[in-house]
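re the bet — no i am not wrong, look at it urself. input seq straight from the record:
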Amino acid sequence: MAKDGVSSNVLGMLLILGGIGAGAGLALLRKPATPAPTPAPEVVQPQSQPQPPGAAQPPGAGKALPPGHPAVPQGQMPMGGAPGVPPGMAAPAEKASIEWTAPAKWKLVPNTSGFRIATYDLTHEPGDSENPQLTVSRIGGDVEANAQRWVTQFDEAGQKTAKRSERTIAGFKTTIVEVQGKYGGMGGQGEAGWALLGAIVETPGTAHFFKLTGPQKSVLAARTDFDALLASIKPVAP
């Protein structure tokens, strides 16, 4: 009887150990589950936000230069206070770096273009029906190209007889342009018997342009006053 009891105990122990071994074996055979890869976050592209009314825009954005205006190097000002400022824009023109004295009889009138620093009306001569006008502006680009643009605002006959000369005013190289004939302006219909008397004063940065146009007799009669204005030019005191 004792022998049978021992055999039963041994058999029970073997069964227990066998169960433990089998469980351990199964545990070893099972591989841990591989976690699912985390999807990459979606990249959201920034969207341009609509600008509220009155928000500042880059200077000259979407603005074109006037007809016939020569190319202006990047970063240089055409006319007005910022690159690309178009005619009629409310922004003020670039401030003058020179000053001058206009004849007392010339009437200073409001500027009709954002390009202008000053506009003067002159009294016309008897027989003429329209007053000449002098405009002062600052403009970028090549001086020669701008002088040629003035000349080509006249008909072919006027272009052939156009005159150019140079002088030094207050230390600044100045180009004088004189044209007579049928004046078309910037895309105008044309005025016969007109004249242009202009001066390009090559100041540092952008040049100053003095452009007198009107009926020929009245413009020629204003030549002495025009020269006196140019002679009065001097740099603005710092």
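see?? The first strand starts at residue 98 and ends at 99. told u. also Residues 98-235 form a domain with the Protein Transport Mog1p; Chain A fold (CATH 3.40.1000.10). so pay up
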